[in-house]
Amino acid sequence: MTSAAVSVPHILVVDDAQFEQRLLVDILTECGYHVSVAGSGNQGYQLAQVEQPDLILLDVRMPDMDGMACCRLLQANRTTHGIPVIFLSGADRPEEKVAGLMAGAVDYIAKPYAAEELLARVRIHLNLAQRVRTAPWPEPTSTDPDAVLVGAAQRFIADNLGELPGLTELARRVGTYRERLNQLFRQQLGVSVFAYVRELRITRAMTLLRDTDMDVRDVAQLVGFSTAANFATAFRERAGTTPSAYRDGLRGPELPGPPPPPGLLQERRH
To answer: Of 153, 158, 142, 143, whose CA–CA distance to 181 is shortest?
Structure first.
């Protein structure tokens, strides 16, 4: 085998439509790429762990596990975290593109697309992937399936704290169901999903009260409380004082700042 053959980039195509699969395989193989194919989000996630492709082209709308959930799991798994993901989707509204980037994708290409544009973006992201990049989240250290799932949920919660969906939808966004997600949070973190979210909201509120001049009502809305009254009640239960009193007390030397927020799960707790 020649050195040139060894260095051929490997691209994983994840799409449930056979026509789209064949089209992408033809485009990519004609340019010399090695291509693997998966027909569902779950299959793509499993295949990515085994084959370690250089880049993943991922459809958004697929049954069972959609592309968003697949991408979150890929980002939360140590073995697949660094693989660039490009979404290919007919869902091209601005909010859908933003959601894809927030899930961890490096790019989002709307269907139908021009082959030249697709190949240009593939080349760009293959080159970028070879460089050292600074990410806002620590690189995951676990490959345990339960730990990966909880880590993906933690990241989604943190990124959407102000407008967090209900537990059923939250679980769907990371490719599972509400009972299992709640059980895994209790096993891995020692708290329910509800308790975890509530603690993170108060912790982030403490940081905003300390580091900004935002109005208390704006802080409450930003961290996901429906009313300032609900926020004040929850804050008092956690901090022993009202949000306004907490901010005023920070001017004195005796009141400490907020505790560190719950971080990404790195290793499974035993």
So the answer is: 153
